[in-house]
Design a protein that fits this description.
This protein is 75% helix and 0% strand. The chain is an all-alpha fold. The model has no long low-confidence stretch (mean pLDDT 88).
Amino acid sequence: MTALALARLPMMRLVRTRRAALPLLGWTAFALAWTLLARQRGAASADSALLGVYVPFVLPLVAYAIVSGALGGEGIVAATRPLSRFGASPRLAALATGLVATLASGIACTVLALLLVLAAHNSADPPLAHDLALTTYATLLAGAAHGAFFVLGSTLGAHGGGRSAALIANWLIGASPAWLSILVPYTHSRALLGGAPAVTLSEPASAWCLLGITLISLTLTSLRVRR
């Protein structure tokens, strides 16, 4: 089967079902409402909009919903079984499904972040074009890394229950000051979007870490699926 054929199933799940769409709409409405209310009180800025609720809650939960939608709420093996039944390599099917979920997560998280920056931007912030460019770069990496991390979690448990464990680990480990926190995407996402650095790492190092988490998670996902 071609790469496009392998990617078609998870793409159709995202487009034709409500599993990802409803949480995405709900979290978008919540984040925009929070930002606009903060702006009315004079407390909104691009940084506060992103670090207030987006990075700690909205970004991971949107990525989680998209991965769940692309996998039909199942683990990676069950989600790709229809493809393997038609002769596709289970590992290639898992990789294609993971790539779709990862890219969709990165795009959705970026679009939402840009909406928040537009809603919150004020005269005290850097120029809008500069803010939008940096936000695009940071949230594409952050959203993709979260998506790939949750795809890897979906290889655990009969119905992908490890995905929920990955979400919780991302919060708990990411909030820790220990070096272990560099293993999860939350730590580096916060650093790239103006928050506390990941231990002693620079922002460019955090960007490389997010890319590494994405690639390693997708590779391990494919390797964990039996031929």
